[in-house]
Amino acid sequence: MLLPEHQPLPVDGPIHGAQHVVRRAALAQALRDRLGVGTGLVLIPSGEEKVRNRDNLFPFRADSDFWYFTGFPEPESWLLLHLQANGSLESHLFCRPRDPEREIWDGIRVGPEAAPARFAIDHAHDTAELDAVLAPLLAEAEALVLPAARDAELDARLRGWMGVVRAKSRAGIQAPTQIVDLEAFSAPLRCIKDAAELRTMAKAAHISAKAHCAAMQASRPGKAEYHLESVLLSHFRAAGSQSVAYPSIVASGPHSCILHHRAGHRILLPDELVLIDAGCELDGYASDITRTFPANGKFTPAQRDTYQVVLAALDAATDATRPGAMFSAPHEAAVRVLAEGLLDLGLLPEQSVDAVIETGAYRRFYMHRTSHFLGLNVHDVGNTQLALRPGMVLTLEPGLYIRPAADVPPAFWNIGIRIEDDAVVTEHGCHLITRDVPVDPDEIEALMASGDQ
Ligand code: GLY
Ligand code: MN
Ligand code: MN
Fold first, then answer.
1. How far is CA 277 from the centre of its chain?
2. pTM higher than 0.85, yes or no?
């Protein structure tokens, strides 16, 4: 039977095979440099489809490392990189074979025949051949790099593979002596984004920012949290993003003080805040934006005063985000401003700002960190003990969360505010890629007044 021709895969995005070749070469070089080995193997699984219920599956999304080094979108696939003693690097992709019967139901597979040319891979095989291809390579590799101690099934297969090679030690065959977690090598590469990645992330950020604008404009008392979520999701998909980067948080009134409240059925009331933390995923790359606004389009005085403190903390964190600064610098800058603000608002007993910071008194109202790396994962890989470098992308997301309490004036009860932008570290500072949705309270009120209220 003649199988249908391939259309270009929509998930190919702007990142092509040539870039994956460069990334794999950089990985191989890092291995040689840091492990000091001549021969080695890198093994990365794509992951498998997971059952949601009975015969109904969750949408498949490839493992981030697998995606980063291959751009191959199908489940049950593996990347095997072979560093050879002569210094060359060979790439093997294992993927599902073509299957006319299954493809009628599930869609066209790339198959091992077409994969090398389409994905800039040296050799492709049926996934069923993995053990057979791996065994002789493992017998002459000094190091094996793979996602270690993360997945019980993979760990069990690793024991099996190693058992086979170790059993041949009397025949003079030496099993790899170094088994190393892939993240130690993939994280430093993934942490510095190339131009194509930055373009994709800016596009994802733009889509998400516009979705936030639409949700603000759709807000009014009487609507449910899920109404605003539906506006976000509609914009994400209409703009071509494949997924949310994480479950959307739409948190009204008291829910705004629950950090990861999923959009629910609560009805928005006048004079309360709505906190939306939502972002789309585009071609595998996350965006992550939070905005907080009044349900009825007008901040109360206590809401506005608190909002200004969080916005000032975001400004301070932005100023602190530059090459050479430690990853913790934006957090420390934000905490200082939030501590000052909590004293000014009368939410903490009189004391010095330093005392608020040293005793951690601010944590009652600000209990999370200000930043995480952003990339293929919303909480992306990267070493948070090191200094920032150009090409890194991190979030800046200060907040204040004020629950009802006897020592808190009622005007502040249930004010939960977080403002979150995505920052690209540049040569001299940082660039916020999420400012297509306003943060200024006057601009937010003006945008909401121009909506369909
Ligand atoms: N959206 C999850 C976070 O901001 O970390
Ligand atoms: Mn975040
Ligand atoms: Mn967020």
1. 14
2. yes
